[in-house]
């Protein structure tokens, strides 16, 4: 068995690396296509996460809270009973710059059961 020169070893390694990166690129493209098809499919209903649970159209306060459309820190603070939202979330540089999808750590002072019961009664159920 003849020994391979450095150049031959280097060429084989480069060919193997090229083949591997090509396979990974094709796999990544396929995953992106599959992901976009799933998002665009109207018959597939997205599961509700614990952050977007709703009770009669009102969102419940969890320790991890995702800001919804039209909410401000003031409305979230009033709803959840946590006046220290800015102090617990150092990633908030400007309290007026709150946008939908922003993730907040809050400490709700109202128990979830009590809050759910209040919302249930408010709707006349």
From TrEMBL:
Protein name: LysM domain-containing protein
Organism: Dendrobium nobile (Orchid)
Pfam families cross-referenced by the UniProt entry: LysM
Ranges for domain LysM: 65-107
InterPro entries, alphabetized: LysM, LysM_dom_sf
Phylogenetic lineage: Eukaryota, Viridiplantae, Streptophyta, Embryophyta, Tracheophyta
PANTHER family: EMBRYO SAC 1, OS04G0572800 PROTEIN
